[in-house]
Write a structure and sequence with these properties.
3-stranded antiparallel β-sheet; 14 helices; about 40% helix; binds zinc ion
Length: about 350
Amino acid sequence: MPASAKIHTARPLIRSVARQAPPTIERRERNCSVARTLDIVSDAWAFLIIREAFFGTETFEAFRSALGIPRATLANRLKKLTQLGIFRQAATGSSRKEYRLTKMGFDLYPSFIALMQFGDRWLAGGRPAPLTLVHMRCGFDSHPFVACSHCGEGVRAQEVKYRDGPGAGRHRAKAGRNTRRASDGSRFLLGRPSSVSRALQIIGDKWSFMVVREAFFGNRRYDKILTELAIAPNILTDRLSRLVTNGVFHRRQYQSSPDRHEYLLTDMGRDIYGPFIAMLRWGDRWLSKGKPPLLLTHLACGHDFAAAVVCERCKEPIVAADMRYKLAYDPTSFGALGPRSVV
Ligand SMILES: [Zn+2]
Ligand SMILES: [Zn+2]
């Protein structure tokens, strides 16, 4: 019997069935501190607001003029970031509200710096870096790097072993996540020139970053990544092809008839590892309730570690309050604040 006939004859039954929960294939997503972090910073507006806050912006009007962001959008993001604990509202005596970064918000700074270094290295397109960091602790211009918290040496992806932590497991994926389109990466480029923006234009889309994560775990084949991420095939295909175009992966055929390909990180792709573990550490610290999903061992020193973003001159961890900036551009042309302390 054709399906259409069945619908006509069995309408009451169909109706009662329709009231029940629709049959869905439950997709389980791996607990991941990077994914939790990206849920916050992969929203381009949220990211830009946090970045301006690192430059000392505090008031609604100052955020608005630096970013050219619509009022309603700004109000919405500030509210959300305050609920998340990234900002707190400060009473100023006047009716003017100020938004100050919390400890949790300031602690995103090393992740931003790690992304910035990546952007400076790979995405400046021959231009000078928009910003030079000066580390006030040692007084030198600084190019921070991501180090092992135990031995202080730089960490490369192939030197790290993973094991499940107390927060390991999977949770049910949010509905609708598989239909999500790639965010418009160009939005990250609004406002001041920024290597962090350039980095996020390529990897700020959450799925793109998750595909790179799988590569760090050694998963390079399409089917394996598809299973691990519980992602829709069309989304995975789209993200892989973007990542190949942007120089993060190169594609290699490992089998013919049927043709199968694997995706290998380029040198540039491997260099995303620093920002990756910096964000992982932030997510572990602030979003995993003391139960990190993943524990990392640095094979070079043999110890468990967390990522530390450190000054390459004095090897001290980078914190926002210790940094000053030399800008290679005129900030007032964006309505933004000039170079100043971030405290
Ligand atoms: Zn180490
Ligand atoms: Zn230093």
